[in-house]
Amino acid sequence: MTKSRFDLEEIIDLQKWEKLQDSLSLVTKMAILTVDYKGVPVTKHSYCQPFCQGVRQDAHLSQYCQKCDARGGLEAVRQNKPYIYLCHFNIIDIAIPIIIDNQYLGAIMAGQLKLRESDIPLLEQVVSRPPNVETNRKFQALEEHYHALPLLSYDEVTKCVDLLLQLSTYIVEEAIQKHRSIDLYKKVLTTNLDAPASVETLDGSERTYRKIQSIQQELSDALISTKLKNGADKFIAANSVLQPAFDHIYAHKNENFSLKDMAKLCHISPSYFSRIFTKETGENFSAFVARLKIEWAKQLLESTDLPVNQVSDELGFCDAGYFIKTFKKFESLTPAAYRSMYKGLSGK
Predict the structure, then answer these.
(1) 98: which strand partners?
(2) Which of 66, 95, 285, 309 is the most buried (most CB within 10 A)?
(3) What are the HTH araC/xylS-type domain coordinates in residue numbering (predicted)?
(4) How far does Cα 327 stand from its chain's mean position?
(5) Where are the domains of the chain?
């Protein structure tokens, strides 16, 4: 696994996260543990079930638990989505990857529960354990705890998983954006420290001025990125084949996208991509992307004072005239008129 350029232990307050993790464990009835990209725990285990505690304290059985954790985490990263599976005791476990900007930061390991018998889908048992007399004896000693494991429906499990995924992604994204903004601000404050101790020449002043401008632009770009990320949920495709395309579109809002390139990204032909994309979204690829960019434009018009031409540039339109034309097609008024109307209605 390639090391992430972000570190969970550095970007989030783990003490606060553990308190939140404890609360989430109570609400969802799931045991929860957070690990880094190496699989090493960065939090304590929130409400580990007595049965699993007993199993993990056994030297022979605990090795199977570790194999389950490792396999589940790897499978979640490979699929780029939460992975629900069965452990070696046929107990439900879940690996929820934390992936930001295509970087794997770690995972939330949750579960230690059972499904209602009538509600059990086909789930993979990631690690099998050969039965033996000693294992059966140990199970019998813990059988009462096994029957006391939380019982949930599969629908309840998937809803809890979605809650954990959305919440963890939001918190980590916010922390990363905060760190980026702070780092850029520190650059601005320390820029003059790089200048020579002697009186600056005109050329030196010009270089310093341009450096400040560059850093200010970086800071502006980071803040714009934050506005866009906070304003629109990423599209989760029912057909997982399409997900790489949606992930790319949402991660590169300032670019133009061709159907052919997105099909290549999904490892399918352009004609098949076009067909299943229309089925997934209800509109063709070009219309979907155009409408999405206009939604992002509205967010910037509402939450920033960027000039219309800069909004156009931030979203990859070829020129401001085409942006205005496209905006008017979807909203029946120009970007400037939309901003005026929004500020008038909101009293801003």
Answers:
(1) 106
(2) 95
(3) 243-341
(4) 29
(5) 8-171
* Type and span of the H or E element at 186: helix 154-190
pLDDT along the chain (348 residues), means of 10: 59 84 89 84 90 91 87 85 91 87 81 80 85 88 93 89 84 72 62 47 50 50 47 68 90 88 93 91 90 90 88 89 91 87 67
Residue 107: which H helix or E strand, with range? strand 103-115
DSSP 16: H
Strand partners, 115: 152
Q: Do residues 41 and 33 lie in contact, with contact meaning Cβ atoms separated by under 8 Å?
A: yes
What is the spatial distance between Cα 7 and Cα 28, in angstroms, rounded to a whole number? 27
What is the rounded CA–CA span in Å between residue 67 and residue 198?
Answer: 63
Number of residues that this document lists for the chain: 348
- Cα distance from N-terminal residue to C-terminal residue, the chain: 48
Structural element, H or E, at residue 166: helix 154-190
Q: Which residue has the tokens 């949402």?
A: 250
